[in-house]
Amino acid sequence: MRNTLIVVALACTASVAHAADAVVYEPAEVISTPVFSWTGGYIGLQAGYLWGDSHMEFLSDGSYGNPDPHGWLGGVYVGYNYEMPSNVVLGIEADIAYADAEGDREGFGFSGIPAPPGDGLNMEVNWSGAVRGRLGYALDRLLPYIAGGVAFADVDSSNVLAPVTFNDSDTMVGWTVGIGGEYAFTDQLIGRVEYRYTDFGSSDLVLDSIDGAAEADLTTSDVRFGLAWKF
């Protein structure tokens, strides 16, 4: 009887061991999160505030004034990014913005004589645009970047101080540089904030009432906020 119990016990042990060997453990499923890519085209809306530093000068006698324009702007931008394997992002972008930026300079002195109240210089920025290259570094959904290129602006310059009067409109062309950051809230919706400095150079002004030469210089700074849809 004792031998029989021993044999039964050994048989059960072997059976359990065989069953344990038959169990196959499958590796746990690894869930991978897709990595966001900045490669692709986009179009967006932007708004911001512009402040300028201007200088108007009559070359005949050295009279001058600084009717620095300032005001709001808003418009659209469109571009394309390519993200390299090293996370460096290269891009090209174009934008145009309507501007409500104006500056008046009262007390303009002609030949050292102060102007009467209400007389003086005026400058208005009606719209501006730029074509820029961009260079950034992708930190997953965050993209800090720098940008630079050529800029354009439609600028009206005028003077109501007799006898020297003018009312001139010109498209000024210069260069622009900027720094900013973008964040992808979703795979398609991307927000941005940017600071931009632009030097539009100088423009010759057409005098209405006397012979002579005058010119206007303009540089601007602006802060812009944008929201874009990535294709």
TrEMBL record:
Keyword Phosphoprotein: no
InterPro entries from the UniProt entry: Beta-barrel_OMP (IPR027385), OMP-like (IPR051692), OMP/PagP_B-barrel (IPR011250)
UniProt keyword annotation of Signal present: yes
Coiled-coil residues: none
Chief localisation class: membrane
Signal peptide (residue range): 1-19
Keyword vocabulary terms for this entry: Cell outer membrane, Membrane, Signal
A Pfam family assignment: OMP_b-brl
Highest taxon above the source species: Bacteria
Residue ranges of every copy of the Outer membrane protein beta-barrel domain listed in the record: 20-231
Localization of this protein: Cell outer membrane
Family listed: Belongs to the Omp25/RopB family.
Name of the protein: Outer membrane protein
Organism this protein belongs to: Mesorhizobium marinum
Organism ancestry: Bacteria, Pseudomonadati, Pseudomonadota, Alphaproteobacteria, Hyphomicrobiales
